[in-house]
Amino acid sequence: MTAITHVYNYTVRCPHYKDPEHNASWLNHIELNQSSEIALNRITKWHELSGTKSFETSKFVVRKAENEEAYFSMQSDRLKNDGHALVTFKIFLDTCCDDAAPEEIMQHLIQDYQQRLAKLEQA
What we know:
Blueprint lengths: L5 E8 L16 E4 L2 H13 L3 E6 L2 E5 L5 E10 L3 E10 L9 H21 L1
């Protein structure tokens, strides 16, 4: 039996402020935590409210929530030495993020996640 040994939860929120001295971007609002509780809560919620498929990128199916301006995805990956990684992604968009593209955000997050997995495989 393979245990979940690594959990990654990515959350991106579009900034709600305009500061002329600082570039307001979703890149500055990426949260990453490793809480199993958050991952399980997301999986439970998304199982009940699966949304509609929006797009697929790098073997990740991304769904759009029906009750909020949010996109989500999750996946698991087998690691060496019988380890297993679980990753969840949630992207909150609203009217102040007209220039944010969910596909671009997901590609950025997936690349970060894959780099983290590569480090685990080298260890």
